[in-house]
């Protein structure tokens, strides 16, 4: 743990991240399809489903990260193999979903398709943010670190790397 970071503060932050991702599922659905009025077409629903998938994976990650922290320092990430598999499955889903929404936009551009493509592209950014390079710097400390050190690997990417280096630890499929 970094100097000056209190465990209670880290726990609150992880809980906030997990709940924030979960709350965003119905909130973003209500905003985009209710308030804004994005039509519920195949393209829009496909792109949005990809975003929802990444939000749920994010919520699951922050939840199990919190559990690992509660288990004590050095505890492996629970269900690391599930997250490693999700990283691969996401690539397949995004690799199919983005071109499919591009084709739908090319065939019939407009509000029935363009939001879906934008959602799908946002899902790609979320995947990168969770599984590769941290793109979101929402705290003052994060922004300060970004200015000093540049981009850093995503927390989940680092956890998966640690689990890969420690075979048999954190690589089970149980989240209990």
Features:
176 residues; mainly alpha
Task: Report on this structure.
- The two termini are about 25 Å apart.
- The protein is an all-alpha fold.
- The C terminus is likely disordered.
- It is elongated, with a radius of gyration of 18 Å.
- The chain is built from 6 helices and no strands.
- It has one domain.
Q: Report the uncertain regions.
A: 169-176
Evaluate the radius of gyration. Answer: 18 Å
- Which shape, going by the Cα principal axes? elongated
**DSSP summary: helix tally:** 6
The percentage helix is over 70%
Q: Main sheet?
A: none
What is the averaged pLDDT score?
87
SSE-based structural type: mainly alpha
Percentage of residues in DSSP E strands: under 5%
Number of domain units = 1
User: How many strands in all?
Assistant: 0
Order of helices and strands: HHHHHH
Short description:
Helix content is 72%, strand content 0%. With 176 residues, it is mostly helical. It has one domain (7-165).
List the helices and strands and how they pair.
Elements: H1 7-35, H2 42-71, H3 80-107, H4 114-131, H5 140-149, H6 155-165
